[in-house]
Amino acid sequence: MKKRFLYLLSFLMFVFLLVPSIKANASGYAVDYDTQETVDELTTHVITSGDDNDLDIVKAYGIAVPADTKELILPIELEHKGLLICTSVLDESTPSSVSTYLDIYADEECTESISYSSYSSTAEIPEAGTYYLKFTVYDYSDVETEYYSLGFASQFYNSDDRTLKNKEWNCSGSIDYKTPIYYKVTTKEAGSITIEVDGEYSSNVTLLNSSKKALSDEAYASSYSGGKVVFAVEKGTYYVKVTSSSDIYWIRSTFKTIKDYSGATKAKAKTLTKGKLYSGLVTTSDKTGKVDWYKITLTKSQEVNITFTGSVSSGDIEIEFYGNGISGSITDHIRTVDADSSFAAETWTSSKLPKGTYYIKVTKKSKVTSGFYNIRLDK
């Protein structure tokens, strides 16, 4: 946020060089930096992708404030709810004893204040509509003038609900950490949805069905998780609910088709071939306790190492390995993004397992569990 203010301020240094001298009338007015035309209403640039090119676009005006009233009120039309980030600065030739303030109001009478600042402002816009910018000048100098010349620049960060396109970044403004934004995601087949959230602070992400009923626990997207949360779903329409402590954040949804190679019953357990990686999927639609089955058959005594990796952001996926020569079972879980629960299967007395058949159970442990995993017999 601070970097954006600094950028807007530096941009205004050029506004005074490129906008012609303002010939103010009694009521004052604004000159559009892009068109060089006089306007009675302001607009702003709405950030969408939030990439460098998008962030470099600033809507700017030269503002003439009449000296007799020392204030000017201009409407600005905002088509979304979200964050209006703006700044104003006096012409550098203005005496240091002159200062300016910027107020933002929800009504034309300027009684419902939204934001107030000496030079810059972040206004939380609760809904689309017309708002009012009030430029006020305080002059303690002895210099006579007909008007005061200001530069004004702004950007807008959208807080509306929207649809996420696969692998495309969106930039959003968070009105407050309790007000969620809902992102629609549609999948054409079964697979994983990875949600990346990049912001200064952490965000909370929940997967919802098409009726906006929660299918997952609230997952925590932070630097610890690489800003990622992962869910697994069947074909359909879903919503991702996000609340964030960051004023501004970037979000992207990436879908990946995943084929499930497992057997549905112990009798149909998938035989693991040494060195081959098999994928498995545990979706939001699967019942609690659903089991994926695998097996290995040893023709001689040997060491057995199992690679078991995957990603889960809600609930957990459990793996059990058991069979001839093992007292009880080897049990582990996947509960995080990019988890690694690989293990060596051993007996109490040897690093080698006796020949025979061994089974692997992969279980969905709770209703809110979803994610994917990879399994491989390494030895």
Can you summarize this structure?
With 379 residues, the protein is mainly β. It is 6% helix and 51% strand.
Give the helix/strand layout:
Elements: H1 2-18, E1 29-32, E2 38-39, E3 45-47, H2 52-55, E4 59-66, E5 71-78, E6 82-90, E7 98-105, E8 113-117, E9 120-125, E10 129-139, E11 147-158, E12 162-163, E13 170-173, E14 181-187, E15 191-199, E16 203-208, E17 219-221, E18 228-233, E19 236-244, E20 248-257, E21 270-271, E22 277-282, E23 291-298, E24 304-314, E25 317-323, E26 330-334, E27 339-340, E28 343-345, E29 356-364, E30 370-377
Parallel strand pairs: 3-11, 12-14, 21-23
Antiparallel strand pairs: 1-2, 1-4, 4-11, 5-10, 6-9, 6-11, 7-8, 7-10, 13-20, 14-19, 15-18, 15-20, 16-17, 16-19, 22-30, 23-29, 24-27, 24-28, 24-30, 25-26, 25-29
